[in-house]
Amino acid sequence: MKLNKTLLALAIGTLLLSACSDSDEKDTSLTDGSQNDTSGINDASTSGLNKGAGLNGSEMNGSGMNGMSGNGDYASTLGPEFNDPNNPLSKRTVYFMLDSSEVMPDFIPVIAAHAQYLIANPSQHITLEGNADERGSREYNIALGEQRAKSVASMMKVKGVSENQLQLVSYGEEKPAALGNDESAWEQNRRVEIVYQPK
């Protein structure tokens, strides 16, 4: 019975959020309420999810829908390593916990592999596309997607990737990888897509 009430409250909240998405006020009723400072980013440990649960690098193909990002990612033409499921370069999606810009530990090797490739190929450029699930206001999700893209970029720059090889964009909730109003869909939408650009 308590689960039914929770689902009903979530459905009503989602309807209210979608009806008010154009307002200037932030609707934080669908987040866990522990947003920090102006960035709105929350430590993953307070999200209520287990770090060990959900997505990991071996469960997801890491390349979004059908292995290609919607804006012309041509990584599959770069070399066989991008198509080898045993190579971390074949994974081009990095996932995050709820309301967090902290990369999930399983995806740190994926970022490191792409950083190493970019260092070895200095004329190669990528776009880091930040995304969020549908919960929270449109403005909040755009900011969260941007923070996620910045987190991946920072990790790559620490490894030695040149800043001019990286372009960042945030789509917030506008480009979901999975449709649905459940945790399975939401966890697939909390991501950064690594999109290789033509040279």
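(ticket continues) Second input and output from the same batch:
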Amino acid sequence: MNERAINFARALLLTLPAVLWAGAAAAHGVAEGDKSFLQAASGMQLLPYLYLGAKHMVTGYDHLLFLFGVIFFLYRMKDIGLYVTLFAVGHSTTLLFGVLSGTHVNPYLIDAIIGLSVVYKAFDNLGGFQRVFGVQPDTRAAVLIFGFFHGFGLATKLQDFSLSPDGLIPNMLAFNVGVEIGQLLALAAILIAMSFWRRTQAFTRQAFAANVLLMSAGFVLTGYQLTGYFQT
């Protein structure tokens, strides 16, 4: 196997939490150009909303970190498909419900919980629940529940804009499809890198450090959002 490819995959995965450290404020953020489009768009704009949904997922550090933690020790595609589907169902449900119903939740608190979802999965990967509490939570239920919070996190951002009611339902459906497409693209890249890394002898040793970094990134995101909550 190409040693350079292995080193690249390892570096990519080990530095993923650091991306959040450098860009915590960007999680669930919307670029200025995208904001202008969302506020000015009227009628059905299926392709643009599809693109924006995919773009959000590919650049959503919080989503990627959580998914990275979820699939970290999953080797069978059947298991990966199950957990990713559970996350997608949760994420899609609250994203559509939050925007279409106008249900609003404090965005800082929601994003703080999303940060804790990253902490939870890293702690779980480290065997923390068994070692500290002597129990093992149902990981499938946890992924679904945290998927609900991730969806609400994006819904709160979209609610900040005066979205036109004309074509809102099909536009939101297209946006949601784009989110899932972006999730699949990001997940494919992570899995390719993981496949190289897992074949190295150092994976077991580095897996511990990677999850410690992942947990640290989750705490950073949580702390950032809680600071914003108490300052507003």
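Agent notes: The chain has one domain: 3-231. Residues 131 and 149 are 27 Å apart (CA to CA). Closing as not reproducible unless the customer responds.
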